[in-house]
Amino acid sequence: MNQARLAAVLGLSAPMLSQLMSGQRAKIGNPAVVQRVQALQDLAGQVADGSVSAGEATDRMDEIKKTQGGSVLSNSGQTTTSSGAPTVKRVVREIQSLLRSVSAAGDIIDAANSLAPSHPELAEFLRVYGAGRTADAVAHYEAHQN
Known about the structure:
By secondary structure, the chain is mostly helical. The chain has helices at about 5-10, 15-20, 30-50, 55-65, 90-100, 105-115, 120-130, 135-145.
């Protein structure tokens, strides 16, 4: 996939994507674009592990391109379980997207380090959700549910 196609799928201009990829820009302000990036990262992982074929990936990229983002409280079939509840991964991604739209990962880590002496649980939350991997955040979320 070339940069122009990736930019189109994400809903970014090619120059903006170039700035992000070169490190000239570190933050995406549009939560819908952040969600598309996360969806593409998941899709890339599925292609890499063989659970999704290249042809299926192309179709899924077209679906990702059409997504508008949104809240985990919506009841679209793609974001909920059969009972209508948001999936854990979707909830975690929404938390990550919100934190990452507010601040860069390095700044979130700095804030967590500042909070750690007096509020270690909050510092852990910021580290896991603000700068950590989705799989680690899902495990954290599941471990803290009653």
